[in-house]
Structures are given as C-alpha cells and as structure tokens.
Amino acid sequence: LKQHGKKEEERTGRRVAMQRANETPFRSCSVHGSGPGSCGPTGGFPSGEGGIRMPQGFLAPGLITGTVAFALLGAMAAWAAMTCVVKETANITKAESRSLAIAVVSMATFCMWLMWACVYMHQMVPIINPEHTNKLG
Known about the structure:
single chain, mainly alpha, 57% helix
C-alpha cells in the first residue's frame, strides 16, 4: 500500500509539473526584437482570440526565408552547371548534357531543401516537453 501511494504521489507530481510547464508561455525571441517572432505572452506565435498561440505553418517567416535561400542556391548551382559542366562528348550531345545537369541540380536542391524544412519544422513544434525534477530537496 505504501508503494502504491508513493507511485501515485510521483504521478501527481509529474502531472502538476507538466500542467505548470504547459501554462508557462513558450518564449522565443526574435533577433530584431519585434514582429511575430519576438518575445511575448503568446510565445512568438501570432496571438489569436484570447491570447491563444496560433501556429504559423508553412508561412512561418524562417521557413519562407530558408526556401528563398535554397531557391537562390539552386539557381546559382544551375548556372554553374550550365557554364562549367555542360559539354559535348562522343556519348552525349550538349543538349542532353544540359538536361542531365539541370535534372541533377534540381533534384539535389529539392532534396536538400526538403531535409532542411523537415528539421526546421520539427523544431518549431517540439513533440515532448522537458520534465524538470527538483534534485535539491
């Protein structure tokens, strides 16, 4: 019986700690100090009705900035492929070489962007909350 009571106290303590953690607004500060990513009571999310945190989804400013950066990277890589890599050989014409270079650059850029976007979005909404234990007493 004592063990059961002790386990129930631990569960209740964890539950209260999780409730407190969920009540505390998550704060993520913007470098610029203002705007949707700045520190505020809604934790960097745009405030909805009653101060409820609203997710930004695919229109998050960081995601858009990264997508534009990858588009520019892909355009520069395509230009470099067209000027430095494309050449005619006995096995392939210049048009086929150009098509192959564009296909490789496009797929590589998309795959790198997709990996980055998944990692970025995973950090936007963490799946778990940390459990804080009081080791002092």
